[in-house]
């Protein structure tokens, strides 16, 4: 079970899971009984976490807040409040799930804002 659980959850949680569900670490996954599987499912869906703090701005993955999207023209990323100002990425009040979406948002809005700003300068 231990190796199967490692594929399901962070390493540090495996021992906690085994202790709290009573599953035997070296039991083959195929030998786990229906009631044990049920206990594991219940635990996975109901494990309580108490948030005790966060690790500070230096380690932050995304920031919350920024310029409201209502103030931005999405076709150019231009500020509606300040002509000639173009915004992108973390400057925007836009958050996405981790796993690439924040980077994609930064790349896409950055590309658009850069092109639009260049066009603005040339006109
Ligand atoms: C540890 C970590 C892990 C992450 N993992 C993911 C992930 O898995 N998936 C995902 O989608 N996103 C992830 N992100 C978020 C993602 O990196 C950001 O959303 C994205 O990089 C934002 O791009 P940005 O260009 O807006 O800002 P930034 O990448 O922060 O770029 C801003 C740049 O401006 C420069 N700068 C700041 N002030 C000045 C100044 N006064 N003059 C000149 N330059 C200045 C900075 O040095 C920096 O180079 C992660 C972020 C962190 C910190």
UniProtKB/TrEMBL annotation:
It comes from the Bacteria. It comes from Candidatus Electrothrix aarhusensis. This is Flavoprotein, HI0933 family. Residues 61-115 form the RsdA/BaiN/AoA(So)-like Rossmann fold-like domain. Pfam families: HI0933_like. InterPro entries: BaiN-like, FAD/NAD-bd_sf, RsdA/BaiN/AoA(So)_Rossmann. Transmembrane segments: none annotated.
């Amino acid at each position: 079970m231990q190796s199967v659980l490692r594929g399901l959850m962070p390493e540090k949680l495996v021992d906690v899971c085994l202790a709290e569900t009573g599953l035997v670490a070296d039991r083959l996954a195929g030998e786990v009984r229906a009631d044990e599987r049920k206990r594991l499912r219940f635990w996975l869906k109901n494990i309580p976490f108490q948030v005790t703090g966060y690790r500070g701005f230096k380690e932050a993955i995304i920031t919350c807040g920024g310029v409201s999207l209502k103030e931005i023209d999405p076709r150019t990323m231009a500020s509606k409040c300040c002509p000639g100002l173009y915004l992108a990425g973390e400057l925007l009040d836009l958050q996405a799930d981790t796993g690439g979406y924040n980077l994609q948002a930064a790349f896409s809005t950055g590309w658009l804002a850069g092109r639009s700003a260049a066009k603005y300068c040339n006109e």
